[in-house]
Specification:
This protein is mainly alpha-helical. The protein has a single domain (3-94), classed as Recoverin, domain 1. 66% of the residues lie in helices and 4% in strands. The chain contains four helices and two strands. It has helices at 3-19, 30-40, 51-61, 71-94; strands at 27-28, 69-70. A two-stranded antiparallel ribbon has the order 1-2. The longest helix has 24 residues, at 71-94. The termini are far apart. The chain binds calcium ion. Residues 19, 22, 24-25, 27-29, 32 line the site of calcium ion (CA). The site of calcium ion has 8 residues, from strand 1. It comes from Patagioenas fasciata monilis. GO terms for molecular function: calcium ion binding; calcium-dependent protein binding; transition metal ion binding. Residues 49-84 form the EF-hand domain.
């Protein structure tokens, strides 16, 4: 597998690992998302350990308002975060 294929596979695997905590492996509940963020993106939430931060992220991700985050919503979130990282490293490299 290529690097990009591996990255895509890992993204799917991470979602599946946390989404299957309860009976429904198609979606992340707020509790599942919280665990995922704490374990997989510890730096992302380091500033906001409070419940509000998770609530806000969850609300933003849950675009259709069904209190579940599906894979599409999760991928959009990962893509947005990746864009932020890309911008950050671009700026760093520019100086
Ligand atoms: Ca689930």
């Amino acid at each position: 597998m290529s690097q990009l294929e591996t990255a895509m596979g890992m993204t799917i695997a991470v979602f599946d690992q946390y989404a299957k905590t309860d009976g429904n492996r198609q979606t992340l509940t707020k509790a599942e998302l919280k665990t995922l963020l704490e374990k997989e993106l510890p730096n992302f939430l380091s500033s906001g350990k409070d419940k509000d931060a998770i609530d806000k992220v969850f609300k933003n991700l849950d675009e259709n308002g069904d209190s579940q985050v599906d894979f599409k919503e999760f991928v959009i979130f990962v893509a947005a975060l990746t864009c932020c990282c890309h911008k950050y490293f671009e700026q760093k490299g520019a100086k």
